[in-house]
Predict the 3D structure of the following.
Amino acid sequence: MARRITSPRWHAFHTHKRGNAPDEYEDAFAGDAAKARFAVADGASESSFVAMWAKLLTEGFVAAEGKPWRELDWLTPVRERWAAEVDPRSLPWYAEEKREEGAYATLLGIAFHKSKTNEGEFLWRAVAVGDSCLFRVRGGRLTKSFPLSHASDFGNQPPLLGSRGRTNDTPQTVERLAGKARAGDRFLLMTDALAEWMLRQTENQRRPADDIQRLLKQTKPHDAFAAWIEERRQRQGLRNDDATLVIVDL
Amino acid sequence: MPYSADINRTNPTCFIFLVDQSSSMLEPFGGQVEKQKAEGVADAINRLLQNLILKCAKADGIRDYFYVGVIGYGGRVFSALGGGLAGQTLVPISAIANNPLRVEQRTRKVDDGAGGIFEQKFKFPIWVESKANGRTPMCEALKTAKQYLQVFLGRFASCYPPLVVNITDGMATDGDPRADAQALRELSSTDGNALLFNAHISVTNALPIEFPSAEEHLPDNFAKLLFRMSSKLPPRLFESARADKFPVQPEARGFVFNADLVSVIRFLDIGTRVAQTVR
């Protein structure tokens, strides 16, 4: 088994789409510093029971330590849990139809461990389905982005993981990437609206990582996040959508 | 950019369906002896309503992204909503969802993912019954739709532009409908002009045509007339159509021949879409 790294510090922030109620937030995040595994997911707003699916996906990824990286076998029990939660419910005809279709969400997960050969070096592996993105920030600069790298790459029909486990519910387009990292590196996990903003700001020669650093320096950054997002919606074209940010510092 | 307003509960948009229920609808549909055009039309409108509802359905209920009116025309022009909604004009989509006349159990063939096919039961709610009676006052129906839209636009002036979907065999009996169609398309919100799309249900057994950009290959003069009355697909709908593998060309219009317009509902952007067809 890969060697664990000393628990990295991590923070998670989230807010709902303007116009929706707070409990209509359908992104999710999960993290376990001891396992050094983190994930975000974005539930497709057109499906039902989707917040639950996104949550189960992120938790399922984080719990899947030691499972083969090339397979997504850990999805099977996650799908069973979703079905066990929703299938017994009595619903009106339309909600029954949507339940039958299943819930859909993106997933981005990352796991860190220590290099066996080079003390002081970290290795990471990430998996992505859809347009939730991972960024590595080094010295305040964006030095890696995955799986999308241009603001123009975002559309409204990303690949998605489905809860029913039917033929197309695990898309062909599962992206994987591995890399190295060192102490002081910062990793950002974001759902699509925020990730698109991150890339567009970078393309416009801005320094969005500094912007995020300033958020963290506020006295109560978690309380400030919703207003921080709203300001960027108003002034910087951040798309109105649920927004989720996980920050992992090595 | 027009046609880019958010569709949400505080800024909903509006769908008006015009359903031809005149006596010509007793003729067979698309060359099928056993099925009348009237049944094809009833199926089409019921599927449109169902898909519109499913677009807004969440686990805890329906989000009112849309207001809906259903206008029948056959002998006279009337609200085709029945049951608990009888006589109403524009209602929120949740009212439609909760007031079908009945819910039928139907079956469909589904790919089992392993090379086989199985029959799956599904619920098919009925709001509009198959009906065929009297002449075809399409011009008057378009005028009525215009009145509905004026009320809606008075209340939601910055909405995504309303959509009017006319399902017909194309034979108006109260004049040339083009002027009324144009008057309808000239209504606008701050986000653009109202859209008029036409679904032409025909007795001929010709292949379905979807979102053509020119009229020369359309099979008859009724189809050509309806094509001319139809709005061009706005850019984002056009892009969605292309992403959904419709072979659309520039200037494509919201017109289909012997096909349905359920796809248009899929094209509307209310958030992250699930790629596969709902039905």
About this structure: The mean pLDDT of chain A is 92.
